Structure formats: C-alpha cells, structure tokens
Amino acid sequence: MIRAFLYTAIIFLLNFNNLFAQKFEALAQTPPMGFNTWNTFQTNINEQMLKNMVDTFISSGMKDAGYRYFILDDGWMAMQRDSSGNLVPDPQKFPGGMKKFVDYVHAKGLKFGIYNCAGTLTCGGYPGTRGYEYQDARFYAALGVDYLKYDWCNTVGLDAKEAYTTMSKAIKVAGRPMVFSLCEWGNHKPWEWATNIGHLWRTTGDIAAGFDGVVDKGTWKAMSVMGIADKQAEMRQYSGPGHWNDPDMLEVGNGMTYNEDKAHFSLWCMLAAPLMAGNDLRKMSDQTKSILTNGDAIAIDQDVLGVAGFKYAALDGLEIWIKPLANNELAVCFLNRSAKQKTITFNWKDHPIKDGLSSIIIDFNTSAYKIYDLWLKKTLGNTNRALKSDLGVHDVMMIKLTKL
Question: How sure is the predictor about 9, in pLDDT bands with cuts at 50, 70 and 90?
Fold first, then answer.
C-alpha cells in the first residue's frame, strides 16, 4: 500500500514538473522570419491598415521567401484592463475584434505574433503583464497567438530571469505553443540563462536606420547596424537551433542607402539572426524587395547547422565575416565599412579557416571550393585563384563556398 502510494506520488511529481517545464521545444529550429509593426508604425496601427499589410506580405513575395510571422508590437490594446483584469484590444483600432484579425492572418497561411511587457506598463504606456502573467497567457492562447514578444519597460525592482521565467511557465500552462521572444535589450545577459526559457533574446538596445556610430533620436540614442554587429562576438556560442541571439529587427527600406541595406541584411544572415522586416511593405521599392526576398542570402541565415558567423579579419575599413554551414560549406562576407571604395585581394591559400565552435577546418591548399556570389547570382571561379574585386562604400560581397 505504501509502495503504491509512493509510486503514484513520484509519477504525479514527474508529471507536475513536466507541466511547468519551460518553453515549448521544437519551435524556431531556424531563426524566425516575419514582419513587425514597430519600426515604421510604432503605436499608430489599425485593423484595416494591418489587413492591407498582411495582403502585401503575400503579394510581395515575402511569404514565398520564407517569412511567416506577422507581429503586432506595442499599442494594440486599450489603456485599461477590464473589471476582471483582462487585456482589452483597442475597439477603435480593431472594430472587428482581435480574434477576427488573428483569424485573418491565419487564413493567409501566416502565423500571428503579439507584444507585451514584463513591467507594469508597456514602453508605450499601455497595461503591462506584471502580476497578470497566467491570465494574459490564457488570453493569448485563446486568440491563437503563435509568437510573443515580451519587452522590459517599467520594470524597476524586477529580476529579469524571474520575470521571464514566470511568463515562460505561463505560456506552457496555457497550452498553446508560442515562440517566446525576450526583448530585454541584453542588460542582464539573457544568453547566459535563457536557453530553456525562450527561443530568442535581444542582445542590445534598439536599432535605428543608421549604418555606423549612434543614431540620435532626440531624447535617447539608438544603435546603428554596425554598432550592434560589433557587440555580437561575445555571445556567439550561445546561439543555435531553438535559442537565437537577436540583434533586433531589420531597418532595410527605412532610409539607408541601397548598399547599406544590403550590408545590413547580409550581416544579419551571417549572424544567423531572426529576420523581422520593419518597413512599410506596401511602399517598398523594387530594390528593397530584392534584398528582403533574396533566397540565396536567406538560405545562409536559415542554414540547418545554426551556427552564427564571426568576424575573421578587419583591416583599414575592410572586414571579412565567416559563417560555417552544413555539409562543410562556408559563407564569406566582405564588407567595406569605410567611406572610400576598397579593392579586395584575397588569396584563399594564405587563409586557412578554423572555427572551434562548429569544428570546421578548411585548408584551401588541399581543398578547392566553388565561389558563388549571392548578390550578383553568378559563379566567380574557385579558390585556386585569389579573389579580386572592387567594393563600394558600405557595400558587401557575400559569397558561398561549395567544395569541388
């Protein structure tokens, strides 16, 4: 009798522990790809405009290129919870109701994402989730949410690991698998503790449409593309399938030059970063579309090995980034960070590649590789000969090496 009771108790405890295991596994095995409203629209959103964006998401080729998540950032809710403490979608912005809009997104074959904050208020001053974690998670599950971006405003006195762990458990208890994005800005080094809590975590402060230096926003300073890229080296080893470093959303199409947009997108692909477009899809130029839907570049980002790239060398404004790929292939990105045109002269046989994280070792003296340019979309010979090319200001040459 006692033995049977103990056995039952052990099984109960094991099941109870499993119930509260953190995050849904088997999600985000490659970096999530989608669109987020914040960079262009901030809180100025409404149902009809968003439906138009969803329609353009499809017609522009974004879905066909691999983008799947349509994410509402801050500003979707009313300023107050209801008398039962429930979040209320803003009835003026969503006259048809949020569930109807979520169903619209799903009917297009896309996944739906939503935003809230670990603090008492969101960054835009709307109701935060602190103290309502399980209630809010049930609400998101009932809506059919597939992705939750969880910010870090108005969190004075909170412990980041505790706050994100609580929300992760709440999502698990709610029972609907959701990608959990920790938007904590890297303040508490989530890459060191969040692998079992979320599927991606921000590594820095907010990005803005600037290539280098800092971007002055008046009351605060945002980070540039290269400012963020420079900070990724220290956490490279923490990123991989199901748990990604997130250097923030894309600013492609938001005011930088064509070369800068191309460089930005290339670096994010080299970093195995989540690709979240932040431009107005309805108004994007053919150049912007060609960048965001470049299948060859996207394939580098989505490579199943899931290893983030690294800066191999830098000299006089010319940088070389390396990303190990599956099947012993390699992506190489030459970046002209300077304000002058540069000439690439790269003798492969003088540059063996060795990466302890991926265990890749390539000696070009003993192995030859085909060189394929991912932006020009043509083969440039092989590594038996030195690579020579001119590279414009803030431009990139992104190539894939395949063994002959």
Answer: very low
